Structures are given as structure tokens and as C-alpha cells.
Prior knowledge:
The protein has strands spanning 13-20, 23-24, 29-38, 45-52, 59-65, 71-80, 100-110, 121-132. The protein is an all-beta fold.
Amino acid sequence: xxxxxxxxxxxxxxxxxxxxxxxxxxxxxxxxxxxxxxxxxxxxxxxxxxxxxxxxxxxxxxxxxxxxxxxxxxxxxxxxxxxxxxxxxxxxxxxxxxxxxxxxxxxxxxxxxxxxxxxxxxxxxxxxxxxxx
Length: 133
């Protein structure tokens, strides 16, 4: 059994969280860029992105956050806004990428985001937006 490295004195402060471009037509690929700084290093954890869509389909993505020393770190998410032609609405919701404002939330966490387990905490959270015109 392998255990993840723990750093209960870890930290992360988001210094930038932006979408590029800020707006575009359906079929635009939005590049969501995250930068954060840690003064004490981080424990093993995760970065979770959640997208609030116009048609209320819950979308999320995540990445592992390795045990890391103090420093500046980047992560990102590419969001293609072309509807999936092979999506079958009888099997579940299909994101249509309708015109409107989309909110992207991010959480940088020690351990599992939202967990009540030991060694889990949300270091920092941020929000950005993009618009499909």
C-alpha cells in the first residue's frame, strides 16, 4: 500500500485565472489558464474545474496535484465548444454550447477537494467567465 505524501502546512494562492479568448462564437476553443503560488509547498492533492453552462448540464474536469516544493505553478483547461454530433440525448444530457455566459470555477486542494478526511483542505478557489456569442 503506497501512501501519498502529506504537507499539512502547505498552501496555494491563485494569482491568475483567466479565459482566452474572453468571448467567441460556438466552436471556439476557450483556453482557461490558472497560475498559483505556494510559499510552503503543497501536499498531494487535486485541481478541480467546474463549468456552469447555459443549459445547466454539469461539466467538470480535474487533475492531480503532486506533492510539490514552494514555487509558482500553472495548470489549464481547454474547452472546445463544438456540440458533439455523436452525443445521444437518450443516454444522457448533451452539451449544446448555447450562446450566453459560462462560469468556470477552480479549486486547488490538499487531498480531495471538499473531503472531510484528514489532510484535506481547499487551498484557494477562483472564478472566471467566457461568453459564447
